[in-house]
Specification:
binds thymidine-5'-diphosphate; globular; five-stranded antiparallel beta sheet
Length: 134
């Protein structure tokens, strides 16, 4: 599985840093939704789903957390700890997020509004669907 880490342009000067995200300009989709996770409790592991259509880009704005990404054949773990970097998550990728630092703020940009029917929340079903897909 190819992991698409996107490095954003950081406008840094003596005052600090600024990153600007614009749809279809570095972000490979139209941004329809933004949500963020914060105050995540110790030892919490969340996600545990894939999407049928949704594409997302996750950015850790503060702190750090780990991602497990699984396309049904390969699992990759990675640490996100850089607000100038985003991870692009395609559809049909199972994701779990864990090891949240206490201060972690995880922002997600999505190409569609929230739609529960787009979720695959059962891992066995995900494996079945991803096998049929290949
Ligand atoms: P959930 O899917 O459990 O989060 P995660 O997969 O990151 O662990 O979402 C938690 C709750 O928030 C759930 O009731 C659905 C709701 N929710 C929305 O209303 N809109 C959204 O955009 C998202 C991502 C979740």
């Amino acid at each position: 599985m190819e992991i698409k880490l996107i490095q954003f342009q950081s406008h840094g000067d003596e005052r600090g840093s600024l990153v600007s995200l614009e749809q279809n300009n570095g972000i490979p989709f139209d941004i329809k939704r933004v949500y963020y996770l914060f105050d995540t409790k110790d030892k919490v592991r969340r996600g545990y789903h894939a999407h049928k259509k949704l594409k997302q880009l996750a950015v850790v704005l503060k702190g750090s957390c780990r991602f497990l990404l699984d396309d049904g054949t390969e699992k990759i773990e990675l640490l996100l700890d850089n607000p100038a970097q985003g991870i692009f998550i395609e559809s049909f990728v199972w994701r779990e997020m864990f090891d949240f630092s206490e201060d972690c703020v995880l922002m997600v940009l999505a190409d569609s509004i929230y739609d529960e029917s787009d979720y695959i929340r059962d891992y066995e079903e995900f494996i079945k669907v991803s096998k049929n897909d290949t």
